[in-house]
Amino acid sequence: MTRNYGIDIILLTVIVKVLFLPLSQKSMKSMRDMQRLQPQMAKLREKFKDDRERLNKEMMELYRRHRVNPSAAACRCSCSSRCSSASIKR
Fold first, then answer.
1. How many CA atoms lie within 13 A of 56 on its CB side?
2. CB 34 within 8 A of CB 68
3. Do 30 and 73 touch, CB atoms closer than 8 A?
4. ∠ CA(27), CA(39), CA(58), 5° rounding?
5. What's the pTM?
């Protein structure tokens, strides 16, 4: 790239951020949607606290009704922790 390692690192950082931007945006949207569902999820947990299977079924129905993907919200956390742990190992 260039002959200056500092500029190379900055350019690489910008390129990686731009490549991961769509994934980050989708993940943030999903996290906001999950936060909006928290009161309803708490009610379901209280209602079905003794029946774990029924609770999971109702939660999946809630996610489906509101078109929320719970795994997309978790993606940002796992991606950022992987990136930070990779940078710490170096």
1. 3
2. yes
3. yes
4. 80
5. 0.60
What pLDDT digit, counting tens, does each position of 45-90 carry?
Answer: 999 999 999 999 999 999 999 988 888 766 655 555 444 444 444 4
Q: How many CA atoms lie within 13 A of 79 on its CB side?
A: 16
Concatenated DSSP letters for 9-61? HHHHHHHHHHHHHHHHHHHHHHHHHHHHHHHHHHHHHHHTTT-HHHHHHHHHH
* Calpha distance 53→17 (Å, rounded): 40
Every domain of the chain and the residues it spans: 5-89
Scanning the structure block, which residue is given the tokens 């993907």?
Answer: 69
Read off the amino acid at residue 56: N
| Residue 3 DSSP label | S
CA 26 to chain centre: 8
